[in-house]
Design a protein that fits this description.
The structure is a single chain. With 266 residues, the protein is α/β, with parallel strands linked by helices. The protein has two domains: 84 residues, no CATH class; 172 residues, Dna Topoisomerase Vi A Subunit, Chain: A, domain 2 (3-Layer(aba) Sandwich). The termini are far apart. α1 runs antiparallel to α4 and α11 packs antiparallel against α12. The longest helix is centred in the last third of the chain and has 13 residues. A seven-stranded mixed β-sheet has the order 6-5-4-8-7-9-10. The model has no long low-confidence stretch (mean pLDDT 87).
Length: 266
């Protein structure tokens, strides 16, 4: 039973505004696919992160109520109804590496216990969102050390974040095992979402890596943020201290930028 999900659904039923990000995180925690659920919602912004929520299909609301009262349906049982895509699988894995050594796989079971073929214990974690940046690790590390407030050493585990997959609830114990977590992500709304979610899980210091001349780099980007993106950047900057500076610059320049551009610059 999920008391938090029940409480949120009760507010929605009563026509009250709810925190959308909290709602989606709660959906993820009970094993549902938050992206699929979000696509089934009708949203009307009240203020800040608060939204009035309704459902395009009432059956989705009914399913959420059932899950909130008794989380009995699993990925396997859902598969029997051709609905497994809405559930997270019982296992996961992360692609990892140390220094410029060959990547290896860390596997996670249904309880979040993880196994690594490396017996090393690291105190630092570097999460890289983009696969090209992860595979071109020498270029990425060189860029971080030359352009960001970052110092790399052998006590660092490097993982491929694969977008927001890094925030799979099965990775929680793994993420909490580090004293320092550095994030090399796209400097856009997606990157901010990943950073906020991950920081809420980790019990360590989390840093969002940005080039020292990020404002100049953003000004060189031609395509600007749309209205919803600007609102999200502004809201995040106001309520997430470790992202305040980068959000301020993004809002000022009205731009975002992908990390892949950093390692392929001329």
């Amino acid at each position: 039973m999920s008391k938090q999900l029940s409480s949120i659904l009760e507010k929605i039923d009563d026509g009250k505004a709810v925190n959308l990000q909290t709602f989606l995180k709660t959906i993820e925690r009970v094993g549902l696919n938050a992206i699929d659920i979000k696509n089934s919602l009708l949203l009307e912004r009240f203020k800040g992160d608060l939204y009035y929520v309704s459902f395009k299909e009432p059956v989705i609301c009914e399913q959420l109520h059932k899950v909130a009262l008794n989380k009995t349906e699993t990925h396997i049982s859902a598969a029997r109804q051709n609905n497994s895509h809405s559930y997270r699988v019982d296992y996961s894995f992360l692609l990892a590496r140390n220094q410029n050594n060959h990547p290896y796989v860390i596997t996670f079971d249904e309880d979040g216990q993880y196994f690594s073929p490396r017996n090393n214990t690291y105190s630092k974690l570097l999460v890289i969102e983009n696969l090209s940046c992860f595979m071109n690790i020498e270029k990425s590390i060189k860029f971080l050390q030359s352009n960001c407030d970052y110092s790399h050493d052998s006590d660092t585990c490097i993982v491929f974040g694969a977008g927001n997959q890094i925030n799979n609830e099965l990775h929680e114990k793994f993420l909490k095992s580090f004293l320092q977590v550095d994030l090399f992500l796209d400097i856009d709304v997606g990157g901010l979402i990943i950073a906020k979610t991950l920081a809420s899980t980790c019990q360590s210091s989390v840093r969002f890596m940005t080039p020292l001349n990020i404002e100049e780099r953003l000004k060189n980007v031609e395509i600007g943020l749309d209205e919803k993106q600007r609102e999200y950047v502004f809201s995040t900057g106001n309520n997430t201290p470790f992202l305040t500076q980068i959000c301020s610059i993004m809002h000022k320049t009205n731009r975002s930028i992908e990390q892949q551009s950093f390692i392929y610059e001329r």
